[in-house]
């Protein structure tokens, strides 16, 4: 099966190189532990299977309900193409989504992990031990996993520490963490003051963290004013006006006034509140 995936993946790379080439680097950086050819082969295989499965299902359903042959075929092709495109899109976007999640985890935990590393370095332990201690703390998320990869490179692959750190730095999805690792490499190679470097990096990271939190707090104050005006005052005004209009009679967009009030209270306002909560959730910073 793996050979089949590899062969189909090689064919896909030959004819879809422009579409697939950006995916290769992302698969490597996301540490999916799968060959690029096999991943592409799986993506194409399941996309083809999704097409024929959806085509067969929709065709059978159309025939059961007595639809004309032409409509049945067209409906099957449309459903199969849509399902196949959805599977293809999911496979293509998954490494990018994984990288984004890892980048967010690294950026969110960097200030605290670097601060911890600076405190450890004050005792004079070597960098390898620092990474070993950080790797043992799962609360640091992807920083802990990146530290484990550095340890793996040294202990399992026999790399020296500088090469091990450089290998991880080249693959990490976070530009800030990559710069931090290169700083450790530079201090290690030149015999610089690693303790001072980590302490300064910790101060800078914590300063950036506080700055981002303060900026977001100010933004939340603006959102709170918007919420008060649009989702509290406006609905109250809406209900008050409609209550008065209900005494007079009439319709709004073809609906009688009591029905319009019920739709606004039980549908529109909850929907707007859910949308506002989702907006707050997806716009909050990663730190």
Short précis:
This protein is mainly alpha-helical. It contains 10 helices and 2 strands.
Q: Helix fraction?
A: over 70%
Secondary-structure content class: mainly alpha
Sheet with most strands: strand arrangement: 1-2
Supply the number of helical segments. 10
Mass-distribution shape = flat
Strand content: under 5%
Keyword list:
287 residues, mainly alpha, two-stranded antiparallel ribbon
Please tell me about this protein's structure:
By secondary structure, this protein is mainly alpha-helical. The chain contains ten helices and two strands. The chain has helices at residues 2-15, 17-29, 36-64, 69-121, 127-135, 142-155, 161-171, 175-190, 194-248, 257-283, and strands at residues 251-252, 255-256. A two-stranded antiparallel ribbon has the order 1-2. Strand 1 and strand 2 form a beta hairpin. Helix 7 packs antiparallel against helix 8 (175-190). 22% of the residues are buried.
Topology diagram in text:
Blueprint: H1 2-15, H2 17-29, H3 36-64, H4 69-121, H5 127-135, H6 142-155, H7 161-171, H8 175-190, H9 194-248, E1 251-252, E2 255-256, H10 257-283
Antiparallel strand pairs: 1-2
Helix pairs in contact: 1-2, 1-3, 2-4, 3-4, 4-5, 4-9, 5-6, 6-7, 7-8, 8-9, 9-10
